Amino acid sequence: MKAESKSEKCDGDHPLYGLLTSNGRNDVSSGMVKRSLQAVRVHLGMEVAYVSQFVGDRTVFREVDAPGLEHVIKVGDSMSLDDVYCRHILEGRLPQLIADTSTQPVAASMPITRAIPIGKHLSVPVRLPDGTVYGMFCCVGLKADPSLHQRDLQVMKVFADLAAFEIGREIETAKITADKRERIESIIEKGQMSIAYQPIWRLANDRPIGFECLARIATEPRRSPDKWFADAAEAGLDTMLELAAIERGLTALEALPWDVYVAVNVSPKTILSAALQNLLSGMPAERIVLEITEHAHVDDYDALLGALQPLRKNGMRLAVDDAGAGYSGLQHILQIRPDLIKLDMTLTRHINLDPARKALASALVAFARDTGSGIIAEGVETASELETLRGLGIEKAQGYFLGRPTPIVDAVKLLRRQTAAQRVA
Question: In 3D, which of 355, 364, 378, 208 has the Cα closest to residue 293?
Answer without folding.
Answer: 378
